Amino acid sequence: MDPFVSLDATAQAELVRRREVSPLELVDAAITRIERCNPKLNAVVQTQFDTARLRAKNPLPQGPFTGVPFLLKDLHAAQEGYPLTSGSRFTRDFSPNHDSELVKRHLRAGLIVLGKTNTPELGLLPTTEGELHGPCRNPWDLTRSPGGSSGGAAAAVASGMVPFAHASDGGGSIRGPASHCGLFGLKPSRGRNPTGPELADPFHWLIGEHALTRSVRDSATLLDATEGPDVGAPSIAPPKTRPYQLEAGAPPGRLRIGLTLRNAMGAPIHPECLAAVTATARKLEGLGHAVSEGHLQTAGDEDLGQHFMTAWACGVVSSIEGLARRTGRPPSSEHFEPFTWALYQFGQGQGLSAYLHAQAEILRFSRAFARHFEDVDVWLLPTTTEPALALGQFPAPPDDPLAPLFRAATLVPYCPMANMAGNPAMSVPLHWTPEGLPVGVQFISRFGDEATLFRLAAQLEAAHPWTHRRPAVFG
């Protein structure tokens, strides 16, 4: 039996600190789990096993996670000399000539990178079944998607390959996979984690990077190790009061929690997603919090959905043209999936005035969104409108290649507003369907207030633990 598979990253690091195990033992065990599970899941699309073993044998930085195995998402996480395909044929041979600042901080924390995880092309869809790497499967049900765009990371963590993994979120790409795979997933505040040394987010600062974890404390401690502005940061989150590691376990106090089930898309909510939220409201009341139903402005209100898509589509144009400059290759339809190319063409047709108007409306929304927290500390709402979907639910037919847009919008209508406003948001695994599928619930707090989310999540984790649950594919 693998003695490490059920341990979170904090517990594994403690074994290394006590010299009860070596980093190489942890790495070898994780490699064995990847080799055993990945053929079923297709979560890991690039491996660095020899490099990882060499790093494990040599002196490592003394950080909070010294010697712990880790995976990077094949998107955003630049690593010098290693492929960063972004899930696209266009960049299948592209390797950055530098480490991103966030990756540098991962390495300084003592983590050992074993490879890269599967993601849809350019991270554009809430499912992970791109043409370059093929579909990733959900460890809880191999016929279903783990979500996207951090689906490979979610499948790898949920199946026990590694205790946690890098992830990113531009409209629900951490929170959706967390919900579908029974994990804790926090999207930090805008500017909390670094994006340098290059301007890594062409999507008008919609994207936040962090991780998918099995425990709350792993997420908190990792954010302690990575948060803070890098040189020249254009956006900076408010400084934390004390380490997040201390927040994860501190009493949250009696919180005023707003509950909303309405979404401006008019998307119906699956009964199990509805049950997850209502049951969580009762749990919160049982813990002494005040829960009241109210209206939270969501991404479809007052044409915000259109402004979001304008910013998103123009971001696709910027991404593709930026990759073209880096690779020295002109983009063409033969290099991209039909949906990606159609979104690229849509973005090209928006024009500068439409893009600037979308930016202005998103900023206006951000100010309006802040007012929702004048009388409420945290909002409770669904993470997604459905449990994990069967694979193949996002077709892009030739006569309507943008069709996946509407499907995506109806699956995660509750997620993009936290990206537009920059607020921290998390999905917490508190519900399972009768078929055994996990369903997460989402919480959003004030801008810069990850501390309240960590305190609340840790309280829920202690009262209603989830790490004992194991998917069909585990270890």
From TrEMBL:
SUPFAM superfamilies: Amidase signature (AS) enzymes (SSF75304)
Cited PROSITE patterns: AMIDASES
Region (Disordered): 225-249
InterPro entries according to UniProt: Amidase, Amidase_CS, Amidase_dom, AS_sf
UniProt GO molecular function: hydrolase activity
Record domain Amidase: where: 25-453
Name of protein: 6-aminohexanoate-cyclic-dimer hydrolase
Organism phylogeny: Bacteria, Pseudomonadati, Myxococcota, Myxococcia, Myxococcales
